[in-house]
Specification:
The complex is a heterotrimer of chains A (about 425), B (about 120) and C (about 1000). Chain A has about 425 residues and is α/β, with parallel strands linked by helices. In chain A, about 30% of the residues lie in helices and about 25% in strands. In chain A, helix 2 links the parallel strand 1 and strand 2. In chain A, helix 2 runs parallel beside helix 6 and helix 3 crosses helix 9. Chain B is mainly beta and about 120 residues long. Chain B has a four-stranded antiparallel sheet, with no helix packed on it. In chain B, strands 1-2 form a two-stranded antiparallel sheet. Chain B has one domain: Folate-binding superfamily (Folate-binding fold, 2-Layer Sandwich), CATH 3.30.2270. In chain B, a hairpin with a 3-residue loop joins strand 1 and strand 2. Helices cover about 10% and strands about 30% of the residues of chain B. Chain C contains 25 helices and 50 strands. In chain C, the strands form 13 sheets. In chain C, strands 8, 9, 11, 12, 13, 14 and 27 form a seven-stranded mixed sheet that branches. A six-stranded mixed sheet of chain C has the order 41-42-43-40-34-44. In chain C, helix 13 packs across helix 15, helix 19 packs across helix 24 and helix 22 packs across helix 23. The chains are: A alpha/beta (about 425), B mainly beta (about 120), C alpha+beta (about 1000). Chains A and C meet through helix 1, helix 3, helix 4, helix 6 and helix 8 of A and strand 6, helix 3, helix 4, helix 13 and helix 14 of C.
Chain lengths: ~425, ~120, ~1000
């Protein structure tokens, strides 16, 4: 690690008026050939390059990014991190990620501010209770910290919550103490910095135009900065993964939809955990800056415009005001949208495909941020070894033909 | 929020409609002659282009009729709406604003603020 | 008091004194005052503390762009972060300053200022990592969190707000000079027009400055009142005052919020704000411009203000923040302030301009000379100094000499920007104007017109030409407005973003974002670290991320960055302007759609009977369903359910099943259609019979179930689950219209047209024979799974013999408007046979004993009919039905899939719970492999012990073996895997 950060390095630099900090990363021009090209400079892509260099000894790696690194969904999400998933395959993947999160600041020597303030998922009816208790039980057997909270315990943790006097009263919740939030930009920057130190070329403003293949093998990527040859290509382009796959003749089961989020004005601490409710669609946490960070829903139609309908914002805000009446006197500071790539079973694809040397990491839908280090780690393994890590073996492309889905969607959404 | 010109009711706010994904997808029948892969593609895979997209909508809070629509997913501009039994309009009758597969249109993108 | 002669001020009602409290001290202002103008009237200049360093701050502006003066309104449920520069005072208002402790004057947090050298941009990314990771969670983060945030959280509050929709041809945003001219030109045209202004007074710059002397030979005030009157009297134009357009969405969809209580205390039960949702063919943006500040050392001290804001306090509020201010500018926008001061009998203490003498407007130059105002040309302010307020400034003059000027006030102008926020929200593109040094609207994406300074048109003499050119599309008569100006009509500026300090120490601070305490040093540091993309820079330094979104400063930051990178400003770009334009109240967004109107409650036609009879309800989707009927206050749910279920098994019970979905399907091809939708084959079914049926998704998974009644090959009635009704109807319609449009079939929901009463139990027949004496309920005349239509006291009813409890039973379908009558009859006739109503919980228990599944409880979207052991339900000879092909995929034909089984605790006293997982090992060592989970579990009054249904891997072949259920404490309970049926395996009761 070339750059070392601590209070001492800050104090030393303070005396120099903070003029001597080293550059976080280079701005290289692409070389002619790389062992691996990662398309997409978000957290997942940069992390993949980092782990390829660190754990698999590959050095000749490029990350190409259409815009600025971390500018896609990495910089647009509500930063919730948890691993309390129902199905074993999901639980193992997200728990792998959570374990990496717990050590990430130290490993990168860059504070990603992983804040384990706990994640609560509310139950609003008998059906929710059944589903949540089932999930808590599965989590516990998978070694994931997860507990059932009574209404009284919820009230103690979140005193501002209106549990009784609302259309769908709060009846209980699951709670994962190790869950929380992290500083989204810092994750991209930390991975980028350390990957760059290990020789990874991070090439910004370099748009992938076509993935070129020959006789079922990868040749390279045609980009806005010319053709770059490669032995292997990993596509981690979130909403745009599908359109890039098409250039190599591969159809992925992805639909790209707008997802919106918003923040309030900053106020002194008022809510100390992450609270999620899928019945009344409202996710909220309070950032270290004091802003309430609120996740809204997706629009129903495909779009690449990074903007959604105001009706979606309305839906979310009215749920917030219903659950937390004091929020009525607060104000929305900013709203924005991203493009999420959604898989039919609401689970990701981390997989090789029919083209030799071409790999996909996509389909994270509305919940990819929490998986960043874990996804990057197993994707690096998959690319380096040409086969899935045990943890991501279920998240293959074949499942849509065989029917062996990891249906997080179905498990959560059926009402009686 | 989009405005969608329902062919039966006229222009209405998009919140009255539900999106039905890609249009003109032929459903294979349930016979065993179809391979797992082909059937899997029918069930799970739909086109997801950036640019011109043929899609279906249903006026779910209105006349409950399904109809087809051509929309530019890079700007959300609706280019044509037609009834379910009408012929699919030809692609070359629409201007594609997106030059590269993941490129941004010159105007109407969520990503640009400044004229280049 | 710093009052001007108020008699010539039309906006302040100086005869109406208003008392209010700020930080506990009582002050007086006048009706019409904002908090800021009232406090300035009382010579108060310190209003708050900054976010990071807790630096003392004053009023920097006089409007919505204010970065500093945010206060807490104690008298309005303690609303935080309210802009003192726009919020009007009222009698009894209580205000508190924010982000300080213990007081505004003495704030402990200001110690951060001393340690500021170790709080550079992004310092938190580089530290707080040692000595152990727990330090972050336990020590560092709690401290950071405590320090962060501006205002305190609001207090308990119930929002009253409403939404209003508008569909108009033209919407004019901004009722200033251009907005009024545009509106006037549209009077009595064929267009419906909405004119929206944030202020309670139309007129904009005419009210806020002395720039314009006369309009069409009238005083500006006279012209405004005459014009507004004409507009108000017109039939086609509506004016919305006190309304801020915050959001410009796609397809000219504007969101605007109207404050209904300007200058008075909001009433509790009255609508406090209205959210206007506007659809419009054309938007005309006349929302003006915003003045920029300049960066130099300590440019944040209280006593520093923007020139146009100072002038607005004078003209609009009749208050002069200081009688001896220094003016510092690099452009012509400061001219008007100097003119205003002199007109009111004051004069600036000094005028400092970074431009050379010959580049200063000649009129201004003469005015300054004539009034003996000390003039510094080619000069810059190197720094401002003072303790909690401005006391002196250092000026570097053209010769390079540094002069000290003692002053308590300084007015700044760093140039002006068209207010492009809404324009960029609409996805219009901006272009950098190198002459005027600002971004201007260049290309609209939607039907958007910009006028006046909002379009970057800073020349007063060009107003007529611009309006006539741009509004020609509406066929208006050409406008001919004659303006007489006090100042030069053109805008001129010379580049200046930042003045470097005389002496740079590690404590020196020149601010670029006042609210977030971002300094120009932070910008330099970020760029040297490689954060040279403007979005990286914003995120790393938090520049322009405050509640003001950097309205007076973000362009300055772009200027500094472009110089540092040696790039054109256009190449640097801007960050994306995020809606809303200014913070938008959550209460307004929610409107009436929360609390009692959050979601409709759907109720059965006999809901009131349930209430009268003490039912406890559960939410099932939007429906309210009776969960159980306690006979008295003391009866618990468990007791009630045991009693109710026992009673069904021994006597009879009646359930209100009205919430189940009911769909009527008709048409020549109804039979073919039903055969495609459901797994079953209906071809050989006789009319008058019914069948339990499953509907699958195309993925082969169970989606819904119900009973299908066949009236004829052309007429069916299907029931669905309560929660699935809408989905099933939607699915039928989709396939009917899109896949099989050739089939002649149509369908409709009749859920709410009919109530459904399910009577079951051994005494059912005795009861219904009494209720419907004309019907023959014998086994021969009315066999199981058949239905009949009858008339009951002129009411057509349908009776279906079916059962979901395992007892013999009938379902009565009754028109909703007759439901109460018939229900009460059943209850009263049933009394002698022990009939009792029962709720959903008892229904769940009884059906589980019988091994009947509930879709969504025993299935979860990953279960096929085969997994449920329902092979018989699949019409194997059918060529096709929804999901058929999926049932033979490699994963769905696996023999070891999760399958439905029954579970019994080996020790019958043990209790199982839903959600518990079934495992093979007695000892749990995590992670442990799971076979599956318990989907339904009840205490059976019939069996006398606990029993459960579960879906477990390879379940069908595990029947007869032992396993374990895991408890939340990670203990295990030994269980037996059994057939999923616990009651009347031979089905003798159903047909009895």
């Amino acid at each position: 690690m070339k750059k070392k950060y601590s209070i001492f390095s800050i104090a030393k630099n303070a005396l120099k008026g903070h003029k001597d900090w080293p550059k976080m990363w280079r701005s290289p021009e692409p070389r002619e050939f790389y062992d691996v090209i990662i398309i997409g400079g978000g957290g997942h892509g940069l992390g993949t390059a980092y782990y390829l260099a660190k754990e698999h000894g590959l050095k000749n790696i490029a990350v190409i990014e259409k815009g600025w690194l971390g500018g896609g969904n990495t910089g647009r999400n509500t930063t919730i991190i948890r691993s309390n998933y129902l199905w074993d395959d999901s639980a193992h993947l997200y728990e792998h990620s959570l374990k990496l999160w717990e050590n990430l600041s130290t490993e990168l020597n860059y504070n990603v501010m992983f804040s384990q303030r706990g994640v609560m998922n509310l139950a609003h009816n008998e059906h929710d209770i059944k589903e949540i208790k089932r999930r808590v039980s599965a989590n516990n057997l998978n070694g994931i910290d997860s507990l059932w909270l009574s209404k009284e315990e919820i009230q103690k943790k979140v005193p501002i919550m209106n549990t009784d006097n609302l259309r769908y009263p709060v009846l209980g919740a699951s709670y994962q103490p190790r869950g929380g939030t992290a500083r989204h930009d810092a994750v991209a920057w930390g991975f980028a910095m350390r990957a760059d130190e290990m020789g990874v070329d991070i090439i910004q403003n370099c748009e992938a135009h076509q993935i070129k293949t020959k006789n079922g093998k990868i040749e390279g990527v045609e980009t806005s900065k010319g053709f770059i040859r490669a032995n292997k290509v990993g596509v981690v382009a979130s909403g745009h993964t599908g359109v890039l796959a098409e250039t190599a003749g591969i159809r992925l089961p992805l639909q790209s939809k707008p997802l919106q989020a918003l923040v309030s004005e900053p106020i002194k601490p008022i809510i100390d955990t992450v609270v999620m409710s899928s019945a009344v669609h409202a996710y909220v946490s309070q950032s270290d800056k004091g802003e309430l960070v609120i996740g809204a829903g997706t629009d129903s139609y495909n779009s690449f415009t990074q903007r959604g309908g105001f009706n979606i914002i309305e839906e979310t805000v009215r749920a917030m005001v219903e659950l937390y009446p004091v929020f009525g006197k607060m104000k929305m500071l900013r709203q924005w949208g991203g493009i999420v790539d959604i898989c039919p079973d609401a689970s990701p694809i981390i997989s090789k495909c029919d083209v030799e040397g071409l790999f996909f990491n996509c389909g994270w839908g509305t919940g990819g941020f929490k998986a960043t280090p874990g996804s990057a780690n197993v994707f690096a393994h998959t690319i380096a070894k040409n086969e899935a890590h045990q943890i991501n073996s279920a998240f293959n492309l074949d499942r849509f033909a065989s029917g062996k889905l990891v249906d997080e969607h179905g498990a959560a959404a059926v009402a009686h | 929020m989009l405005i969608i010109d329902c062919p039966y009711c006229g222009p209405r706010d998009q919140s009255e409609f539900s999106n039905g994904g890609e249009a003109h997808v032929k459903r294979p029948d349930g016979s065993a002659d179809i391979g797992d892969r082909e059937w899997g593609e029918y069930v799970f895979i739909r086109a997801n282009p950036k640019g011109i997209f043929y899609e279906r909508w249903v006026h779910s809070h209105g006349c409950r009729k399904w109809f087809n629509c051509v929309r530019d997913t890079s700007t959300d501009e609706i280019l044509k709406i037609y009834k379910i039994d009408e012929e699919r309009p030809k692609l070359d009758s629409f201007k594609n604003n997106v030059k590269t597969p993941s490129g941004e249109p010159n105007l109407g993108s969520g990503n640009f603020t400044v004229k280049k | 008091m710093s009052d001007l002669n108020l008699t010539d001020n039309k906006f302040i009602q100086f005869h109406q004194k208003i008392g209010f409290k700020f930080d506990g001290v009582k002050y007086y202002g006048y009706k019409g005052d904002t908090i800021a103008s009232a406090l300035l009237r009382n010579n108060l200049k310190l209003i708050g503390r900054s976010f990071k360093y807790h630096r003392p701050r004053g009023f920097y502006t006089c409007g919505i762009e204010e970065p500093n003066a945010l206060v807490q309104i104690i008298s309005e449920y303690s609303e935080p972060n309210t802009r003192a520069t726009i919020k009007k005072i009222y009698e009894g208002m209580e205000i508190e300053s924010q982000n300080r402790w213990p007081s505004l004057e003495t704030d402990i947090g200001s110690i951060n200022n001393i340690f500021s050298p170790v709080f550079p941009a992004g310092f938190y990314y580089k530290t707080f990592m040692g000595p152990h990771k727990n330090f972050w969670k336990k020590i560092y983060e709690p401290i950071i969190r405590k320090a962060a945030g501006l205002g305190k959280p609001p207090k308990e509050f119930k929002a009253v707000s409403t939404h209003l929709h508008h569909n108009v041809d033209i919407t004019i945003v901004g009722g200033g000079l251009n907005g009024l001219i545009a509106a006037k030109s549209l009077i009595d045209t064929k267009y419906s027009v909405l004119l929206i202004d944030f202020d309670d007074q139309l007129g904009g710059i005419l009210n806020n400055s002395n720039k314009v002397l006369s309009v069409n030979n009238q005083t500006p005030m006279d012209w405004i009142s005459e014009t507004v009157k004409e507009i108000e009297n017109s039939k086609n134009i509506k004016i919305l005052k006190n309304t801020l357009v915050t959001t410009y969405n796609y397809i000219n969809h504007l969101i605007a919020v109207e404050d209904k209580f300007v200058g008075s205390r909001p009433l509790k039960d009255k609508v406090n704000s209205t959210l206007h949702k506007i659809r419009t063919d054309q938007v005309i943006l006349c929302n003006g411009h915003i003045e920029r500040f300049l960066s130099f050392q300590n440019n944040d001290l209280p006593g520093i203000m923007l020139c146009s804001s100072f002038e607005k306090y004078m003209c609009r509020y009749g208050v002069i923040p200081s009688k001896e201010t220094v003016v510092f500018s690099n452009n012509s926008n400061s001219e008007s302030l100097v003119f205003s001061l002199i007109k009111k009998g004051f004069k600036p203490k000094a005028y400092i301009d970074s431009r050379s003498g010959e580049n200063i407007e000649p009129d201004l130059f003469d005015l300054i000379r004539k009034n003996d105002i000390p003039l510094y040309t080619n000069s810059q302010i190197k720094g401002a100094y003072g303790n909690k307020k401005l006391q002196k400034i250092l000026v570097e003059d053209s010769s390079g000499g540094v002069n000290e000027i003692k002053t308590d006030f300084l007015c700044l102008s760093g140039g002006i920007n068209p207010d492009v926020h809404l324009f960029t929200q609409s996805k219009g593109l901006l272009d950098w104007d190198e002459k005027d040094l600002t971004y201007k609207p260049a290309q609209a994406f939607q039907p958007t017109i910009t006028l006046g300074s909002a379009s970057g048109q800073f020349d007063f003499n060009a107003i007529n030409k611009e309006i006539n050119e741009k509004l020609v599309i509406f066929g208006i008569k050409p406008v001919q407005i004659k303006l007489e100006l006090n100042t030069s009509h053109k805008f001129k500026i010379e580049k200046l973003w930042e003045v470097l300090p005389q002496k740079q120490t590690i404590w020196s601070k020149s601010f670029i974002d006042l609210q977030n305490d971002v300094t120009t040093k932070d910008i330099r540091q970020a760029i040297s670290e490689g954060f040279d993309r403007i979005e990286h820079l914003k995120r790393y330094t938090t520049n322009s991320m405050g509640t003001d979104q950097g309205k007076i400063s973000s362009i300055n930051a772009l200027g500094i960055v472009s110089d540092l990178l040696d790039k054109k400003v256009n190449e640097v770009g801007t960050t994306i302007y995020r809606p809303p334009y200014a913070p938008l109240s959550f209460a307004a967004i929610a409107g009436r759609n929360s609390y009692e109107y959050y979601d409709p409650e759907r109720k059965s036609p006999i809901h009131n009977w349930h209430i009268t009879n003490g039912a406890v309800f559960e939410d099932v989707g939007q429906w309210k369903r009776p969960w159980y009927f306690p006979i008295n206050k003391d009866e618990t749910m468990d007791e009630a359910v045991q009693r109710e279920s026992k009673n069904v098994r021994e006597n009879a019970g009646v359930l209100d099943g009205s919430t189940l979905g009911k769909i009527e399907i008709k048409g020549k091809d109804a039979l073919a259609f039903m055969n495609l939708i459901y797994t079953n084959s209906f071809s050989k079914m006789k009319p008058g019979t019914s069948r339990y049926a499953l509907m699958l998704g195309e993925d082969g998974m169970v989606k819904d179930d119900g009973i299908i009644c066949k009236i004829s090959d052309e007429h069916f009635i299907a029931t669905t689950t309560t929660g699935g009704a809408a989905t099933v109807l939607g699915c039928m319609e989709e396939y009917a219209q899109t896949e099989w449009p050739n089939l002649n079939v149509y369908m409709n929901s009749i859920t709410e047209q009919y109530a459904t009463f399910n009577i079951s139990g051994p005494k059912t027949r005795n009861i219904i024979e009494k209720v419907f004496p004309e019907v023959n309920f014998s086994n021969e005349a009315f066999p199981f799974m058949t239905f009949q239509f009858h008339e009951y006291e002129d009411t057509p009813i349908r009776i279906l013999r079916a059962s979901f409890t395992g007892e013999m039973g009938y379902e009565i379908y009754v028109p909703s408007n007759q439901a109460v009558k018939i229900w009460e009859k059943i209850i009263s006739f049933g009394k002698e046979f022990g009939l009792m109503p029962y709720g959903t919980e008892t229904m769940h228990l009884l059906r589980a004993e019988k091994g009947y599944i509930i879709v969504g409880q025993d299935t979860d979207g990953s279960i096929t009919p085969l997994d449920l052991g329902l092979d018989w339900i699949i019409g194997k000879s059918k060529k096709d039905f929804l999901g058929k092909r999926s049932l033979i995929r490699s994963d769905t034909v696996r023999k070891d899939r999760k399958q439905l089984v029954g579970i019994l605790p080996t020790n019958k006293n043990e209790k199982l719970e839903e959600g518990q997982h079934i495992i093979l090992d007695k000892e749990i060592k995590t992670p442990t492999p799971m076979l599956g989970h318990i989907t339904s579990c009840y205490q059976s009054p019939t069996l006398g012990h606990n029993f459960a249904l579960a879906v477990i891997k390879n379940g069908q072949s595990l029947i007869g073996t032992k396993a374990f259920a895991s408890t939340p404490e990670l203990k295990t309970i030994e269980v037996e895997i059994v057939e999923p049926i616990f009651y009347d395996k031979e089905n003798t009761k159903l047909a009895s």
